[in-house]
Amino acid sequence: MSKNLRLDDTDRRLLRALQADGRISNADLAQKCNLSASACSDRVRRLREEGYITGFSAILDPTKVGRDVLIFVEVVLDRTTPDVFESFAAAARKAPDVLECHMVAGGFDYLIKARVADLVEYRKFLEEVLVRIPGVRETRTYAVLEEVKSSTSLPI
């Protein structure tokens, strides 16, 4: 049985409200979801313990912190063996400019989402980090011209 089948309508309301405002007080969240404060607190604790809520964080404006340029990079490895996959994944996890790294099926092996200050910084990242990872054969870069939609909220 899939874990998400155990969510009832109240759990879904709680999760939607917390995705919209992770700093909402328990009292306000309880009121918004038609619960008592203690029942609300108990449900949120259960949702955290069961792994539905994995954490809370502040969402920053990239331009205000000097990360104006969003880049996607397709990465092709020279070999698709477990050791090459693991070494690439470990290097991607350590790279601070990498926001997301996904192993994908299709015409390339990994898709990276990165944020950098400008294209000069991206070139530095590409030369000093990405292509130096053992196993990287080829990369294709896509600089984002306009973010049409960017969301961290899951539809539930």
UniProtKB/TrEMBL annotation:
Instruction: Please provide the record's keywords in A-Z order.
Output: Activator, DNA-binding, Transcription, Transcription regulation
Q: Which Pfam families match?
A: AsnC_trans_reg, HTH_24
Q: Does the keyword Ribonucleoprotein belong to this entry?
A: no
Tell me the CDD domains matching this sequence.
HTH_ARSR
Output the Gene3D superfamilies linked to this UniProt entry. Answer: 3.30.70.920, Winged helix-like DNA-binding domain superfamily/Winged helix DNA-binding domain
Outline the extent of the HTH asnC-type domain.
7-68
Q: Origin, by domain of life?
A: Bacteria
* InterPro entries, per the entry: ArsR-like_HTH, AsnC-type_HTH_dom, Dimeric_a/b-barrel, Tscrpt_reg_AsnC-like, Tscrpt_reg_AsnC/Lrp_C, WH-like_DNA-bd_sf, WH_DNA-bd_sf
Tagged with keyword Thylakoid: no
Q: Which PANTHER family match?
A: LEUCINE-RESPONSIVE REGULATORY PROTEIN
Q: What is this protein called?
A: Lrp/AsnC ligand binding domain-containing protein
Q: Organism, per UniProt?
A: Phenylobacterium conjunctum
